[in-house]
Amino acid sequence: MTSTSGNPRPTSLDPEIAARLKRSADGLVPAIAQQYDTGEVLMLGWMDDEALHRTLTTGRCTYWSRSRQEYWVKGDTSGHYQWVKSVALDCDADTVLVRVDQVGAACHTGARTCFDADVLLKDEVSGTPGQDQ
User: Fold this and answer.
1) 131 φ, ψ to 5°?
2) Helix, strand, coil % (nearest 5) of the chain?
3) How far is it between the farthest Cα atoms of the chain?
4) Which of 13, 16, 31, 101 could cross-link with 49 by S-S, CB 3.0 to 4.6 Å?
5) What DSSP state is assigned to residue 101?
6) pLDDT tens digits, 55-77
7) What's the Cα-to-Cα distance from 53 to each of 70, 81, 98, 104, 121, rounded to whole Å?
8) What is the pTM of this model?
């Protein structure tokens, strides 16, 4: 696996899991963070094989920063931790769902989720975006 700059990033991800992943051209998979007990969608991050390995083995979400080209662990600088409850692949093995216990804000803006500020369509009956009746 190589980074977008061409430098190899070593990984300890289980080879059976790694073989199943369908990655983007830059070696990443989108990782959706969801509050485990409410189903609230918190944020979207990106993981390479090593970030997924770290997430699976440490109990804390680790992401790959596309802008900084480095790993970051949610909460290390903000104190807003994501404690991993479960990790699943979608049916195409090209997206990871990480169910977490979010401590504090998930969004870098300080909002609870990254999806609160710019609602494009709102269900007028329930008042909740995307909520079925």
Assistant:
1) -90, 120
2) 10, 30, 60
3) 51
4) 13
5) E
6) 999 999 999 999 999 999 999 99
7) 15, 18, 13, 24, 36
8) 0.82
